[in-house]
Structure formats: C-alpha cells, structure tokens
Write a structure and sequence with these properties.
Elements: H1 3-16, H2 20-40, H3 46-69, H4 73-87, H5 96-110, H6 118-129, H7 135-174, H8 180-214, H9 219-252
C-alpha cells in the first residue's frame, strides 16, 4: 500500500468512525496533495507526497505559535492534534545523538568545514537524514559542527608561523644543503603523512566536542570528552607546526 492509499484508507475509516477532527485533517491533506499533483503534472512519488505532508505540518506548527501568542489555547491545542495526525505519515524522527552522527559523517565525507558553505552543508545533510529530521534541527547541528571546526583551525593556525620559523632556523643548521634532492623528496612524503594525521586530530576534537555536548549530564563521559578534545588540539598544533616547517624548507630547496 502506497502512502497516498494509506491516507485515503485512513480517511474512509475516520468517516466510518465519525471522527470529525481526523476526517477534516486528512481531507485537507488530500486536497493539498491533489493540488500539488496538478502542479507537477505527473503521478507523485512517495517522497513528493511526504514533502506535501511536511509542508502541511510546518504550516500547522506555525499556526500553533500564532495561536499561543494570541492567547488562543483552544485553537493551539486543536492544531497540535492535527500535527500529531499528520506526523504519523512521516518517517520516524532521529534522536539528537544519531542525527549529529549522521550529519557529522556527511559533512566529513563532503569535505565541508567552513560556515561559508552552509548552503552546501544543508543540502548534503538533508539528503543524508532522508527526511528523518526537520531542517531547523539539522541547521542547528551544522552550525555547531562548523563553529567547532572553525575554532580549531583559527586557534591552531594563529600559533603556527612563529613556531615554524624558529624550528626552520634550527632545522636548516643540521641538514646538509648538498643533499637537497633526497631531503626534498623525504619532506614531501612527510607532509602527506602530516595531512592524514591532521585530519585524524580534527576528527578527534569534533568527536570529543559532540560527546561533551550530548553527555553533559555524565561526569565520566565529560572527562573523557575533554581528554579527547585536549589530545586532538595538541596533535593539531604539532601537525601544523611540522607542516609549516616542511613547507618552508621545501620552498627554500
């Protein structure tokens, strides 16, 4: 049975049971689906039907807010009941922990790390959650992820230049310039490994940050999360310093 067939069947059952509230809600939903079908000019897929339901739910939730602000608790409650009726036809919503994990993995795979990429991040994340979380929740999680990542990058990068210059001066004094061909190749190989280590370090910080936010009520988990953040941050600093050293020396060679 398709989603549309299920809604139609439930409407008929509500009619038999004389459940006027459910009947009215489902009639309005089917009317919205019919109008959308006319606009699309083709048979609607399950995803397109779900999009109509989501749109109806959003409108109803906005109405609830308006009724509450207008001191109309009776209308707010009846509208909330309509929301409950429609949400039955949507996929089960993900918990916050699961949602954060899915969004984090999606952004990591897409290589998204900047707030300027919010639009792209939303597209990637919403596709990953497959309708199991609303856009507001997803956006909030993305903003937290990108904020943590930006904090790490800015903090590490700001301390790198001075350390790199000092280390380079010392390194230059012990490396034989006549062997620049072998040294240059070695440094390029080292730099590739440093990139991988850096990615792992940043992921450690992100993982620790999420654990700290989601397990704030458990002291043991908070301490473990803080330890992960600290170790990841220190590793990131070391990686940036070493990467800067090798890059500067390669340019000189």
């Amino acid at each position: 049975m398709t989603l549309l067939e299920r809604i139609t069947s439930d409407m008929k059952e509500a009619m038999k049971q004389k459940n006027n509230a459910t009947l009215s809600t489902l009639r309005l939903l089917l009317s919205a689906i019919k109008n959308k079908k006319i606009d699309l000019q083709h048979e609607m897929s399950e995803e397109e039907v779900q999009d109509v339901i989501k749109s109806q739910v959003k409108q109803l939730k906005d109405a609830v807010v308006s009724f509450e602000q207008g001191a109309r608790p009776d209308l707010a409650e009846s509208t909330k009941a309509e929301v409950v009726t429609l949400e039955v036809y949507l996929p089960a919503q993900l918990t916050d922990d699961v949602l954060e994990t899915i969004v984090k993995e999606a952004l990591t795979q897409a290589g998204i790390s900047l707030k300027q990429e919010m639009g792209k991040a939303m597209g990637v994340a919403m596709k990953a959650v497959a309708g199991k979380a609303d856009g507001t929740r997803v956006k909030q999680i993305i903003e937290r992820i990108l904020t943590v990542f930006a904090f790490v990058i800015v903090g590490v990068a700001s301390s790198a230049p001075a350390y790199a210059q000092v280390a380079f001066d010392s390194f230059d004094s012990i490396v034989d310039p006549m062997s620049y061909v072998d040294v240059g190749l070695l440094l390029r190989i080292v730099r590739v490994f440093l990139l991988w280590i850096g990615i792992f370090a940043v992921n450690t910080i992100l993982s620790g940050g999420f654990s700290y936010m989601t397990d704030s009520s458990r002291e043991a988990n908070r301490q473990s999360a803080q330890s992960k953040i600290t170790s990841g941050f220190i590793s990131s600093i070391v990686v940036v310093i070493l990467f800067a050293i090798t890059s500067v020396y390669i340019q000189v060679l």
